[in-house]
Design brief:
171 residues; alpha+beta; eight-stranded antiparallel beta sheet; four-stranded antiparallel beta sheet; 3 helices; 12 strands; 42% strand; globular
Length: 171
């Protein structure tokens, strides 16, 4: 077998082996993602922001199953604010210090749309010690959070050529 044949075999194999998931945050009126990050199945990411009415911090933790379906796992907030609270039949409400926390939700949201708030709201995506303040990148823009399985080849390609805005890289 020639070197070209071996390379083709290796690349072909990498193209069909599972490589995890890609979470994309894409403007509803657009095709190019603002951010695309690689995650492992069941790995969690968090949306952190300040409620626009209460000005109180909120954390929403999500996960993605191996097929790319997004789930909300828990919510944590400083107080019972406008529009916040337990969804009947979803999760367990508990108090952790000053925070109300809804845990064990594991409720499928699938793809979802979020209108990114202004800098005061500071919609921020958190994962693996990284943070991207979406309000700095695209305030008042409606974005779709979606996820899809990717191959090992794609995963390696993305590691070489990440799709993060310069200020979104690990801090």
């Amino acid at each position: 077998m020639t070197l070209v044949g071996i390379l083709a075999l290796v690349l072909g194999t990498l193209a069909v082996l599972p490589g995890g998931l890609e979470l994309r945050v894409t403007p509803v009126k657009g095709n190019d993602p603002l951010i695309a990050i690689l995650l492992c199945p069941h790995e969690r990411f968090t949306l952190h922001y300040y409620h626009s009415v209460e000005d109180a911090p909120i954390w929403e933790t999500h996960s993605i199953d191996p097929d790319g379906c997004i789930y909300i796992e828990d919510e944590r907030y400083l107080k019972f604010g406008a529009g916040m609270g337990k969804m009947p039949g979803k999760g367990r409400m508990e108090r952790q210090g000053d925070y109300e926390v809804v845990t064990d939700m594991h409720a499928a949201t699938g793809d979802f749309i979020l209108r990114i708030g202004s800098l005061g709201v500071n919609h921020t995506l958190l994962w693996r010690g990284n943070r991207v303040n979406l309000s700095e990148i695209a305030p008042h823009v409606a974005v779709r959070f979606s996820a899809k399985p990717v191959s090992q080849l794609y995963k390696w390609w993305r590691k070489l050529f990440p799709s993060l805005p310069p200020r979104a890289r690990a801090r």
